[in-house]
Amino acid sequence: MTTIDISLSATLTGHQNPIFAMASDPTVDSLFTAGNDKGIVEWDLKNGAFKRILTAVPSSVYSLQLIPDTSLLLAGLRNGEVWCIDVQQQRLVKKMRVERGAIFAVCSLSTKGEIIAIGEEGVAYVWSLDSFDLLYRFRVSSTTVRAIQPYRVGNQLVFGDKDGFLYLYDLIDFKQLEKRKVHRMPVTALAVDDLYLYSGGRDAQLYQLHQKDLTLVNDLTPHMFTVYGILPHPVYPVFATISRDKSIKIWDRSTRALLKHVSLDRGYDGHRLSINSATWCGNRLITAGDDKLVKVWDVKMGTP
């Protein structure tokens, strides 16, 4: 079994309101965070310091994603806009908009050169990454969708909605392949590794599912309250989870054994309110939430 040693290397302060979203670029040690503040912040992870306000925004930001192999950052906003920002040139490249409602999830579909976003109205919007023209618009759910997860292999994509349903779609023509009720409450987090799909919800449950048909493999109750993030490590056979219960947990991917529990109750200088977002940046786990703080954790892994 993998062993874990975790220590806090930096606490980044400056946000005036809860943080909802983050994205990191390990190649240049940059981190981007956003939430209820009227700006997207860039941090220098090498020095553990504030770098700049990347851009001002007119409303809360619920989703951030760096498009791989580019200098472009996607942001999903409460006002229904999706922004594409060039972080090197520090300029807004394009502003896209949905018909109504907040955007809760946005991501790039790099294999197709497309951007997809979804949110409050349960309708997915797909734009060209080259021209930013709207290519497709289709209803996924009759209610809010907060999570999108493309598969690493194959051309499929999963959505998770407020009623606890998962929807598996084909990326070629955006045809629905499967629909399955998984959670008793809203789906709040999705993740994949090479073999399985993981789904977390407001019911404090985490489900490991077969990717091809969304059938159950295993289930776990990782936290006391909502699971806001499931983060497979990019190299090691572990995954982290974060929650509204203010804790970070790291699990063995194959056995689902708990390897580390990080919280104030366990003696760590952890978060004092809900942890809403997290990302791996190499062997650093970065977390942020309602306490307006960004915490950078050094994670060392070995074998007993």
Automatic annotation (TrEMBL):
Query: Key word Cell membrane present in the record?
Result: no
Matching InterPro entries: WD40/YVTN_repeat-like_dom_sf, WD40_PAC1, WD40_repeat_CS, WD40_repeat_dom_sf, WD40_rpt
Q: Which SUPFAM superfamilies does this one have?
A: WD40 repeat-like
- Could you list this entry's UniProt keywords, alphabetically sorted: Repeat, WD repeat
Q: Where are the WD repeats?
A: 12-53, 220-261, 268-304
Tell me the superkingdom of the source.
Bacteria
**Protein name (database record):** WD40 repeat domain-containing protein
